[in-house]
Write a structure and sequence with these properties.
Layout lengths: L8 E5 L4 E5 L3 E6 L7 E3 L10 E6 L3 E8 L6 E7 L2 E8 L8 E11 L1 E8 L2 H4 L4 E4 L3 E6 L2 E6 L5 E3 L2 E8 L4 E10 L10 H16 L9 H13 L1 E2 L4 E2 L22 E2 H13 L3 H15 L9 E2 L10 E2 L13 E2 L10 H15 L3 H4 L3 H14 L18 H19 L9 H18 L1 E2 L4 E2 L26 H13 L1 E2 L2 E2 L6 H4 L7 E2 H13 L3 H12 L11 E3 L4 E3 L5 H15 L4 H5 L15
Antiparallel strand pairs: 1-2, 2-3, 3-4, 3-5, 5-10, 6-7, 7-8, 8-9, 9-16, 10-15, 11-12, 12-13, 13-16, 14-15, 17-18, 19-20, 21-22, 23-24, 25-26, 27-28, 28-29
Helix pairs in contact: 3-15, 4-5, 4-6, 4-15, 6-9, 9-10, 13-14, 13-15, 14-15
Length: 612
């Protein structure tokens, strides 16, 4: 068995963990009880012997169609064979009990012979559980972990897997469920799948009903918002970058990273999208999570944490897994958690200003003491080189984007003090001096007159897509000749078949071998810049091109290879869906997020969503 193409996966989730389901009816990835726990199904990074759950027709499938039930994360896959049609409905109820996958098989036409194969391997495909029959299913235990499997049809053992065969015809339904539980706790009783499905539908539709976005492309925005909510760890409020680890940035390459953690940068981008769409509760939960994670030492602020606020994310390689289509190594943990990245300070301060602009400072409850401590620390470190936004593993440098985001931090502190009285007025003069100092340095050292462009780091001749953030954050107006020159240079040097690469490959900068695909988020950023410049026709063309990349259920990965037409990188990727939401708003509303973030919106603030 070879794992499906990345774009052939859909997701199910319960705001605690996420499962990946391919078009053939196989769940190839599932970590429980948390999104960053060890996987019980790891076929995505190996073979079916590393764990999967298949439900599909026995005979040859003529066609497959998939869709989510409207405004939910309930997935329906319809298989057509010569004998008829059958549907598999997959979902996970989002309430705070043990995570459960429900799989319901329904007959639609004719009589279809179905097969079920369950292979559980705890610990990322390495541990075969002890299996006990319960009469209506199985209990599978290994160490501290247990799974309760309920089956409406007789089961049989085959090797180290569990199999079943059954017929499905119109007006018949067979419901299976798989529940994670601590092995030291009592075995849970199986849940009623029909009731769970009704609950899941209501829960997601109630959540979607809070959305205040009514612009063009609403369906695309709703699907992206649901995806971002699925990547949120409900018990803590943390927002994950993606649901997977080690999906490669180039097939067969070694740029394979674990994204099942909460990056402050990614999370602040996500929260801005939630806020723009009316979801203040998610922002409030995340700010509480951040305060717990940072604790009493803002000077030790990490760029990422575990979903519970864990700081130690030691990176190790799993040699037993062959990797997605041979892309090794498979990594869990992330060494980048120890990196120093200046831009996260700016992102956090910008997120606080976005919250204030929505007129909910008390509800979102940004702690001014935390913000002041972050600013105090930034005053001491902004002049130092850092590791940059892309987490390069080469030497630290004075990355231009990083310095710009330090400018953003001081600028947002001034606005929070002057416009919203959220920080002390007596510090404004000091922050204004620092803001001017950073701005002057970036314009002097980060701009190359020969290239007519800002550069990746001070004194270099290299370009970087992160420079596309200079206008949207308000560092310079979009019609400033230096911004226009930078966008032109990036279009000339970093665009590949309409998509933007993150930077020009240089081993001395990123310290890594091999290449990568084009980056979807930075391509959205190009559209945002063009929209700010008034070139909305070009911006819409790029946006529609990107919309066309979403798979059949509206999902995007991190990167794309235009030469092979394949998605690359971890999946689904929060950055990509955040950018889709923001660009849609930039193109369909008078004062989109880029206008607001840059300070160019005439209103000076977003209209708060109506109370509900």
């Amino acid at each position: 068995m070879t794992p499906a193409r990345i774009e052939e996966y859909a997701i199910i989730g319960d705001t605690r963990t996420v499962g990946l389901v391919d078009r053939n009816g196989s769940i190839d990835w599932w970590c429980a009880p948390r999104i960053d726990s060890g996987a019980a199904f790891a076929a995505l990074l190996g073979t079916k012997d590393n764990g999967r759950w298949l439900i599909a027709p026995k005979e040859r499938v003529i066609s497959v169609s998939r869709s989510y039930e409207k405004e939910t994360l309930v997935l329906e896959t319809v298989f057509e064979t010569a004998s008829g049609r059958a549907a598999v409905i997959d979902f996970m109820p989002p309430y705070f009990t043990d995570s459960t996958i429900h799989r319901t098989v329904e007959g639609r036409e004719g009589t279809v012979d179905m097969e079920m194969e369950l292979i559980v391997r705890f610990g990322y495909g390495s541990i075969t559980p002890w299996v006990t029959s319960t009469g209506d299913g199985l209990v599978m235990v290994a160490g501290s972990e247990g799974l309760r499997f309920h089956s409406p049809v007789p089961l049989a053992g085959r090797g180290r897997s569990t199999v079943a065969s059954f017929e499905i015809s119109p007006n018949t339904r067979r419901s299976f469920s798989l529940t994670w539980f601590p092995s030291t706790a009592p075995v849970p009783l199986p849940l009623d799948s029909l009731a769970a499905r009704n609950h899941t539908q209501r829960w997601w539709r109630d959540w979607v009903s809070r959305c205040t976005y009514n612009g063009e492309w609403r369906d695309d925005v709703i699907r992206s918002l649901i995806t971002l909510k699925a990547l949120t760890y409900g018990p803590s409020g943390a927002v994950c970058a993606a649901a997977t680890t080690s999906l490669p940035e180039a097939l067969g390459g070694s740029r394979n990273w674990d994204y099942r953690y909460s990056w402050l940068r990614d999370a602040t981008f996500t929260l801005a999208s939630f806020l723009l769409s009316g979801y203040t509760e998610e922002a409030a939960a995340w700010t509480r999570w951040l305060r717990r994670a940072v604790a009493g030492s803002p000077g030790e602020l990490q760029i990422m944490y575990g979903v519970g606020g864990e700081r130690r994310l030691t990176e190790i390689e799993l040699d037993a897994l062959p990797g997605y289509q041979g892309s090794k190594p498979v990594r869990i943990g992330n060494q980048a958690s120890t990196q120093f990245q200046l831009d996260v300070f700016g992102e956090v301060m910008d997120s606080a200003l976005t919250a204030a602009r929505h007129a909910f400072p008390r509800k979102i409850d940004w702690d001014p003491h935390l913000l002041l401590a972050i600013l105090h620390h930034l005053e001491d470190v902004w002049t130092e080189p850092d590791d940059g936004i892309w987490e390069v593993r080469g030497p630290r440098r004075h990355f231009t984007h990083s310095k710009v985001m330090a400018w953003v931090a001081f600028d947002r502190a001034i606005r929070l003090a002057q416009e919203f009285h959220y920080l002390p007025q007596q510090r404004v003069g000091h922050w204004a001096h620092l803001r001017e100092q950073v701005h002057a340095e970036v314009c002097d050292k980060g701009f190359d007159n020969e290239l007519n462009s800002f550069t990746q780091y001070y004194g270099s001749k290299l370009l970087d897509a992160s420079l596309l953030m200079l206008a949207p954050v308000g560092f310079l107006p979009p019609d400033d000749p230096r911004i226009v020159g930078t966008v032109t240079a990036i279009q000339k040097e970093l665009v590949d078949e309409g998509f933007v690469r993150r930077y020009q490959p240089d081993g001395s900068v990123d310290g890594l071998e091999g290449g990568e695909g084009t980056f979807l988020m930075t391509t959205f950023w190009l559209a945002d810049n063009l929209a700010l410049m008034g070139r909305s026709g070009e911006a819409r063309e790029i946006f529609e091109h990107l919309r066309g990349l979403t798979n059949d259920v509206g999902l995007l990965s991190e990167e794309y290879d235009p030469s092979t037409g394949r998605m690359l990188g971890n999946f689904p990727q929060a950055f990509s869906h955040v950018s889709l939401i923001n660009t849609a708003a930039n193109l369909s509303t008078p004062a989109g997020p880029s206008m607001m973030r840059s300070g160019r919106a005439a209103s000076g603030g977003l209209t708060p969503p109506p109370s509900r």
